[in-house]
Design brief:
disordered N terminus; binds CU(I)-S-MO(VI)(=O)OH cluster; 28% helix; 5-stranded mixed β-sheet; 782 residues; binds pterin cytosine dinucleotide; 7-stranded mixed β-sheet; alpha+beta; globular
């Protein structure tokens, strides 16, 4: 039967969990008195029956206290948990495993190394079952069934748009193009892996759970809902997300390890720590992408686009654990009309079960937007080349025009604001586009391969609007609570959770701007559910659009009250007061005024009779719309005909995220984001053999770019404020990851189009390019 690779449970494996990082308050460093450690036995098979788990040797290992398996958890009915898409995920299996590296059992021990030794000593008898890893094969009649509890491997069908109208526009089109575009499975590689410390206090029946989560409140509610029957109600659960060392979406879902640690702490009464190593992180946690898209565009010979049809097969692994808003099983994939004015559009997506780990968005992308952007931006280039038009001119012709905003897209989104022409023009000026085209023509005549690729993307970030957005029923608003202390200093707490985005700086700046309290007098706190106001957390670049807005609104509420106090102190009517940053003064007599610090002191020492003392406010912000950041990226590549190596010579990125709160942080976000766009475009990919053995479960096989491979980024900006956001800001955290891959892929195909190449799937490795060159008889020897 299936040949499998050994999983190598060893001490070495535990040491691998540590990776270079800076100082901080990380789970990996947590030590509590009497703390126990968990390590996990994982399946070498992608699909197998568990016939027996032999624990004798493990239990005889000094320091090993217990081996926990599925049936143990079943007694408390916590062997399964709901996914964010209301599917079922095993915490530990009762009898069958569904993917390689799936949790089979957990070993509890006094030391981390002892737990690993215990794992190595557990023997499991498996009976391998037929495996299906290809989602197309999974849909064929007679394919091995991944889930016994489901009718078939088909999870759901979702469609959006007007099929009839799109079909008519395709029938009437002068030009139609069609490509198959695969966006491979990839995995985030945060500096810290996932982990937790669960501490059950039996005397007070109270659980504290320090965990690497991007959404602490949502986790608290979910834990309360699934453990309510055990008496663990929500006020007895405190989730604290300390420094989590990067999230990138991978720390949104709940993983079995968290649940097992909680169960183990409740049973033993001791604190229990679980932390993954690098391989577990890569092989078992939520993945990103894995979309097989058949994309079609229709238009006229003069380059006018008319219609779009995208059909997608989405590989979800063995359970649908996509971190999507409930209403949108394929996320916001229907932003795929991008920056262009289409008359009609129709998209359909089918979700499929396979013997792979679950997941379905996590990788710096707000709900399938990268897949949408990659497909439309690749297709825009194919269309332009097909009709012999310059790809920049083609984009300029089809862009939604600045005066058309707010713009209702063919798939129903209302884009808030944009000026796509300005961003592309700026990128073209920065890179010297016309000269590069001239150079390309000359080089082509000499047989040299040079390409220029453009990506003019539109993002969609900032969920809520709560009318359309919820996760497991929890509405996607977000929150800010500000308390101004008597001495004019303040603390501000948020329902979001920074993972390295610098919220401590930028939130303080928003409040400073609104209230005139210096930013370094404002303490920003997130991630502790006992103190922070309820919020849905940080992902999908929603913090600035939603919690950032809440910070501005809460500040303005404080200003309202401050005005009343100032009027009282100045013995003036409120209407006669003017605000300048940090101070109210009497109209016409600017020297008669009170600073926010004086007002704050009075709020506690001399507030008007009949008014509540104190100076604080909270806002739960439900955005009226999403924000639509955008940008134009241009990439120049040179390709070696001998080796197929692609060298990125230049990469210009012009981003527009509306008003920038902190330009340095925004640039940092774009630098990191571009590198995370470059990575899957050129290097990262997780594949499986037909038996479900993973290729890419360590950093020897899963290639991450370092400073050596990463190109030099050249940044530019335009500023088109969001009309509905209180300070005109849009999100930016993911834009560059979303926009970059298409620019790189377009540049490579642009270099090869004259040879007859229309499309290359990412990652664009030297080997792949060499093979393409060879197929077209175009390597240096041919
Ligand atoms: N910002 C700004 N002006 C704007 C927009 C944003 O100054 N107009 C600032 C913000 O105030 C914030 C930062 O830029 O400090 C990012 O803001 P935003 O776009 O609102 O995104 P979030 O804070 O919600 O961060 C989430 C986003 C996502 S979803 C992923 S994935 C990702 C990313 O951020 N993960 C990251 N960037 C990351 N950066 C680091 N270091 N680590 C991660 O895990
Ligand atoms: Cu989907 S990666 Mo970010 O949204 O945490």
């Amino acid at each position: 039967m299936a040949e499998v690779h050994g999983l190598g449970h060893s001490r070495k494996r535990v040491e691998d969990a540590r990776f270079i990082r800076g100082q901080g308050n990380y789970i990996d460093d947590f030590k509590l008195p009497g703390m126990l450690h968990l390590d996990i036995v994982r399946s070498p098979y992608a699909h197998a029956k568990i016939k027996a788990i032999h624990t004798e040797k493990a239990l005889a290992t000094p320091g090993v206290l217990a081996v926990i398996d599925g049936p143990t958890l079943q007694k408390y009915n916590v062997h399964n948990m709901p996914t964010l898409m209301s599917d079922t995920q095993m915490v530990l299996p009762i009898d069958t495993v569904k993917y390689q590296y799936q949790e089979v059992a957990a070993v509890l021990a006094t030391e981390r190394y002892t737990a690993a030794d215990g794992v190595a000593a557990v023997e499991v008898d498996y009976e391998p079952l037929p495996v299906v890893v290809d989602p197309f094969k999974a849909l064929e009649p007679g394919a091995p069934k991944v889930r016994d509890d489901k009718e078939s491997n088909h999870i759901w069908h979702w469609e959006w748009g007007d099929r009839g109208k799109a079909d008519l526009d395709f029938d009437a089109a002068e030009v139609t193009i069609k490509e198959n575009i695969y966006i491979p499975r990839i995995h985030v590689s945060s500096i810290e892996t996932c982990g937790c410390v669960a501490k059950w206090d039996p005397a007070n029946t109270h659980l504290t759970l320090w965990m690497t989560t991007q959404a602490p409140h949502a986790i608290r509610t979910v834990v309360a809902l699934i453990t309510g029957h055990l008496g663990l109600s929500e006020e007895k659960i405190r989730i604290i997300s300390p420094d989590i060392g990067g999230g990138f979406g991978g720390k949104v879902p709940a993983y079995p390890g968290y649940v097992i640690a909680v169960a183990a702490s409740i049973v033993t009464g001791a604190p229990v720590k679980w932390i993954e190593n690098r391989t577990e992180n890569l092989a078992a946690d939520s993945f990103g992408r894995d979309y097989h898209i058949t994309a079609e565009l229709a238009g006229k010979k003069d380059g006018t686009l008319t219609s779009l049809r995208f059909k997608t097969i989405a590989d979800h692994g063995y359970t649908d654990a996509a971190a999507n808003p409930s209403k949108f099983p394929a996320g916001l994939f229907h932003i795929c009309t991008g920056s262009y004015d289409f008359k009609s559009a129709f998209v359909e997506v089918d979700g499929v079960y396979t013997n792979k780990p679950p997941g379905g968005i996590a990788y710096r992308c707000s709900f399938r937007v990268t897949e949408a952007v990659h497909a439309i931006e690749r297709m825009a280039d194919v269309f332009a080349h097909e009709i012999g038009m310059d790809p920049a001119e083609f984009r300029m012709k089809n862009f939604i025009k600045p005066e058309e905003f707010p713009y209702k897209s063919a798939l129903g989104w209302e884009y808030d604001s944009g000026n796509y022409q300005a961003a592309l023009q700026k990128a073209m000026d920065m890179i010297g586009y016309q000269d590069l085209r001239k150079e390309q023509t000359e080089k082509r005549a000499r047989g040299e391969l040079m390409g220029i690729g453009i990506s003019s993307f539109t993002e969609i970030v900032g969920a809520g609007p709560s009318k359309d957005f919820d996760i497991l029923g929890l509405k996607m608003f977000d929150s800010c609570e500000i308390r101004v202390h008597p001495t004019g200093k303040a603390i501000a707490r948020f329902g979001t959770k920074s993972q390295g985005q610098g919220h401590e700086t930028t939130y303080a700046q928003i409040i400073a701007e609104e209230l005139g309290i210096p930013a370094d007098h404002i303490k920003v706190e997130e991630g502790d559910t006992d103190t922070a106001p309820y919020g849905l957390g940080t992902y999908a670049s929603r913090s600035t659009p939603v919690a950032g807005a809440a910070a501005a609104i809460a500040s303005r509420k404080i200003r309202e009250k401050a005005k009343k106090i100032a009027a009282h102190l100045l013995e003036a009517a409120e209407e006669d007061l003017e605000w300048e940053t940090g101070r109210f003064y009497v109209k016409g007599s600017p020297d008669q005024g009170k600073t926010i610090q004086e007002i704050a002191f009075a709020a506690y020492t001399n507030h008007p009779q009949g008014m509540e003392a104190g100076l604080e406010a909270v806002n739960y912000y439900d955005p009226p719309n999403l924000t639509y950041p955008f940008g134009s990226y241009i990439c120049v590549v040179d390709i070696d005909r001998g080796t197929g190596e692609v060298k990125i010579r230049r990469f210009v990125a012009v981003d527009d995220c509306g008003v920038r709160i902190n330009p340095m942080i925004v640039e940092g976000q774009i630098h990191g984001g571009l590198t995370m766009g470059f990575a899957p475009a050129m290097m990262e990919e997780i594949t499986y053999d037909e038996n479900g053995n993973i290729h890419g479960a360590n950093f020897m096989d899963y290639l991450l770019p370092t400073a050596v491979e990463t190109p030099k980024w050249e940044l530019g900006e335009t500023v088109t404020p969001s009309p509905h956001h209180p300070i005109g800001a849009k999100g930016v955290g993911e834009s560059a990851t979303v926009g970059a891959p298409a620019a790189i892929a377009n540049a490579v195909v642009d270099a090869l189009w004259h040879l007859g190449v229309r499309h290359i799937d990412i990652p664009i490795t030297a080997r792949k390019v060499w093979e393409v060159l060879h197929q077209h008889g175009a390597t240096s020897e041919e």
